[in-house]
Design goal:
The chain is built from three helices and 22 strands. The strands form three sheets. The chain has an 18-stranded antiparallel barrel. Strands 6-7 form a two-stranded antiparallel sheet. A two-stranded antiparallel ribbon has the order 18-19. With 364 residues, the chain is mostly beta strands. The chain is 5% helix and 63% strand. The chain has a single domain, classed as TonB-dependent receptor, beta-barrel domain (Maltoporin, Chain A), CATH 2.40.170.20.
Amino acid sequence: MATALVNGLGGSAGFGEGVLNRNDDGSIDREGQYDAFYAWLRNPEAYKPGNLMWKHGMTDGMWARTEMTDEERLQIAPSLELRGGASVDHIGGIAEDRVEGTELDVDGITNLSGFGELSLRPLPWLVANAGARGVYGSSFGGVGLWKAGLAVFPWPSGELNVRHTRNYRQPTIRERNLPFPVANPNLRPELSDVTEIGFSQRLSFVALKLTGFRSASQDLIRTFGVFPSAEVVNVARAEIWGLEGSAEVQAGPTRTTLNSLVMDVGRFTRQNPSQIYGLVFELELGRFRSELTGQLLRELYDRDDRRDRIGDVLLTSLALRYAFRHPSLDVALLLRNLLDVDQEVLLGYPLPGINGLISLTARM
């Protein structure tokens, strides 16, 4: 079945989106007020005939991304699965010098990649997987990435896991061209290695999760200063250790989740608070769903190098959603007081008090 998704005016942000990113790029996403156009940015159009996925979306108000991916799965044996595929994407955009009234030259970015992943379950209580990806880009050449993981299920509904991934992030068109004239067209790609050790346990109505992690980055892309005079540069090396946990309780139509994150963010603290504590309460009755979110952020700094500390921030967000579902069409109406939690707290851009959004999902 082919599925087309058109979320023309939809947008949402989960707990800690961006803030919890262990390789947060620290970039400034936009300038000025929110509008309906930004709500569209994070919800691209998509089309999926079989195993082929095509996506197109606009981001930051200045560039568009088109991506096509083909993925195949092969069940070699009952306990062994091979997955592989290839993808191509192109990012192009425009940038304008509004002082001079001229357009700046922007080089588009085209990436080709191939990937493979092997999953093995030799015993009912043991799962292992390993994968590799090769990426070649028109701007930065080629790079090899990999990941490996092991999960053990020693008792019913319990899991112990360990995994390691090597991640790669190219500088965005915005980081290389904006804010004019202090952008950095000479930015290098960022490489990071993330190691995680985790535990989870699910009972009849309670789910617990605890994860310890270490993130080590080379050429970390960071923004220093305040827009529009901010400077974006590569940091040679950065290391973050942390502990993340959650507890979820499901009772009838309600679900309550407690989240916590404590990490040693070192010198680069602009968009990485050392402590985050969150509470999410959800209620779902038929087509109606409400969500109340609270977050406490501690040890925030307005500048890097532990200068100009900001007081602890307590933020609450309320979202109300009504959905109409049909075999071929879903329509959802959403009201919320904050469009994007991390932007409100960390970047200081003014947000409207109430957001009215609509999303549309069509299946063909």
